[in-house]
Amino acid sequence: MTQWRMLTCCGIITCLVSSSSLEDRASLESPVRFDTPLRFETTVQRPVEAEGIGLHHGVNVKIRILPAPPMTGIVFLRTDLDRFPIAASWRHVARVSYATSLMRQGVLISTTEHLLSVFYSMGIDNAYVEIDNLEVPILDGSGDPFVSLIQQAGIRVYRRRKRYLHIRREVTVEAQGKRISILPSDTFALSCHVYFDHPLVGHQRMDMEVTPEAYAREIAPARTFGFAWELEAMRDMGLIRGATLESAVLFDREGVQNPEGLRFRDEPCRHKALDLIGDLALIGKPLLGHVIAERAGHAMHTALVARIMSDPSLYELVTYDQIGARAVSSMAASASAGAPAAMAV
């Protein structure tokens, strides 16, 4: 049984505390029960940093991840521009071609999806990200290095209750044979389908409930990828200036040019799931819904986010305990309905 299943089935049973007066007290510093981060907002325990090259702009960049107070969300701070802040929000989406970029008042942060995917999936609600250039470093092309950073930083749990965005009815965006939908669910689940005309790819699909453990094991190691015959056109567009075989998987007509090969047989599909989660993170709250993506990309991901956030009737904001209480009530009602009628005497 995973943590997200416990959110659905055992929310009240596993509660650590229930008094609302605790919300305004100091944050927890001692070890916490495994279910606590599902109930309360979090940040990183201590600063961590990384340095690398931007995938598309090819610039050297350094990031530093810092703790942030409750209700801050994820905020990028351009240290080369007097710490100019750009919140990781759907309102600031600027470009969605081959990467997701955010812009506020003309200031850009590019290729945010890998880092945001890790924050979201590892349960980090609040953080400042100092960055001294316009693009998040690609590192090895996956989410793994960022997962390691979060593990090094540790997680600090606040007493402010976490609010989940719970989808109330189906939402769909589709165009040109591509489609993405989200269905009501009491967990965060993904169904991701991709197709690329290559002997090592073809049709690939993965279905999973997203937990920190499953994400770190099954999705985070999957690297960004490309095809050799598309490189020239992408460079002509000013893209992939920082790409190498150390930061991306490169498919040629017959196989993979990376000496180590693929990390997973379906690595492209897993990486698309990683990107999808990073774009969904722009909602700004943990999501409860089943997302089904069929050959979707950044543009369609962010269109779904905008569609959801533009219509408050599509969702409700709930706490862990509210979802748990509903689950217990539903199970009790089901048990009552299934009980045999009393025998007449």
Give the helices and strands, then pairings:
Layout: H1 3-9, H2 36-39, E1 40-44, E2 48-53, E3 60-66, E4 74-78, E5 84-87, E6 93-95, E7 101-104, E8 107-109, H3 113-121, E9 127-131, H4 144-153, E10 155-161, E11 163-167, E12 171-175, E13 178-183, E14 188-196, E15 202-209, H5 212-219, E16 225-227, H6 231-236, E17 249-251, H7 267-280, E18 287-294, H8 298-309, E19 315-319, H9 320-338
Parallel strand pairs: 4-9, 11-18, 14-18, 16-17
Antiparallel strand pairs: 1-10, 2-3, 3-9, 4-5, 6-7, 7-8, 11-19, 12-13, 13-18, 14-15
Helix pairs in contact: 1-9, 3-4, 3-7, 7-8
Describe this structure in words.
The chain contains 9 helices and 19 strands. The protein is α+β, with helices and mostly antiparallel strands and 345 residues long. It has one domain (3-14, 38-327): 2-Layer Sandwich (lpxc deacetylase, domain 1). Strands 11, 12, 13, 14, 15, 18 and 19 form a 7-stranded mixed sheet that branches. It has a 5-stranded mixed sheet with strand order 2-3-9-4-5, with helices on one face. A 3-stranded antiparallel sheet has the order 6-7-8, with no helix packed on it. α6 links the parallel β16 (225-227) and β17. The chain is globular, with a radius of gyration of 21 Å. The termini are far apart. Residues 1-35 and 341-345 have low confidence and may be disordered.
